[in-house]
Design a protein that fits this description.
Elements (H helix, E strand, L loop, with lengths): L3 E8 L4 E8 L2 E7 H8 L7 E5 L4 E4 L4 E8 L7 E7 L39 E6 L5 H14 L4 E2 L1 H4 L6 H10 L1 E8 L1 H5 L2 H11 L8 E5 L4 H7 L1 H4 L4 E2 L5 H15 L1
Parallel strand pairs: 8-9, 8-10, 10-11, 11-12
Antiparallel strand pairs: 1-6, 2-5, 2-7, 3-4, 3-6
Length: 261
């Protein structure tokens, strides 16, 4: 009997074998070494699989051991060709660097560090300054600001801080200068705004020795778009609303700031 044989070698239980047929249907058998020898010699044998009418065929290896795949026409007319591969197993869970892994992501105003201390008028200091485009308020920024407040943090967010008659530039300057942590919500609308660029310039100026005290949050943007806007921002430790909830981001920021208190 003619058949196509693929020696899979030693495999782990749970791995999946994919058999792709070209042409007619065929018999597909997954067998351990003992049963493959019996099959090859025309004796009774046990196998996983059967007559396949569609391709590809996927069979799970039931236990660790040495395994074989045999494909034959089994008396059906026509010629059978097949390719066999073991599908890659699931990748390890994706983990991102914790915010605490960046030494200067948080700035303590009581420490001068390597930079020049910034003098500001007496008054309230903030844990977090949020720079954003107004179009992102409802979906991202307001929920984030409220989540940070619920974590016990003081937040500079324009809806919380600006009043009629306030000098916008002066209030932004003060918020940037007195905040320990800068959050930038990067979106397509952020890239188009003027005030966001002004805020970003101020936040970048607050960096010590070129290290990061900013957390970009990517919102519905690609890495290509971020690179086109600012290559340096694209390389920073960031969070994305595509992979993290607002509550998860707020909790991470809060945990970092509370750990420094």
């Amino acid at each position: 009997m003619k058949f196509i044989h693929t020696d899979l070698g030693n495999r782990k239980g749970g791995e999946v074998v994919e058999v792709t047929l070209s042409g007619n249907s065929a018999n597909v058998r997954l067998m351990d070494s003992s049963n493959f020898q019996s099959y090859k010699n025309g004796r009774q044998h046990r196998y996983y699989g059967g007559h396949a009418k569609k391709s590809p065929v996927r069979l799970k290896i039931p236990r660790a051991g040495h395994w074989h795949v045999a494909v034959d026409a089994g008396g059906y007319p026509g010629r059978v060709n097949a390719s066999v591969r073991v599908l890659p197993g699931p990748l390890p869970a994706f983990t991102e660097a914790p915010l605490s892994s960046v030494p200067s992501l948080y700035q303590d105003h009581h420490e001068s560090g390597a930079g020049v201390p910034i003098t500001v008028e007496p008054g309230k200091e903030y844990d977090v300054f949020i720079s954003h485009a107004s179009e992102d308020k409802d979906e991202v920024v307001r929920p984030l600001a409220e989540a940070l407040r619920n974590e016990g943090l003081s937040v500079w967010y324009d809806d919380f801080e600006l009043r009629i008659g306030d000098s916008l530039r002066r209030k932004i300057d003060r918020g940037v200068a007195t905040s320990k942590f800068g959050v930038i919500v990067l979106s397509e609308m952020f890239f188009k705004k003027g005030w966001t660029n002004y805020e970003l310039d101020g936040l970048v100026t607050r960096q010590n020795t070129g290290e990061q005290i900013l957390l970009p949050i990517w919102h519905n943007v690609t890495k290509k778009q971020v690179i086109e806007y600012s290559p340096s921002l694209a390389d920073r430790l960031a969070r994305s609303t595509a992979t993290h909830t607002i509550e998860e981001i707020a909790s991470e920021i809060a945990a970092l700031i509370h750990s420094k208190e």
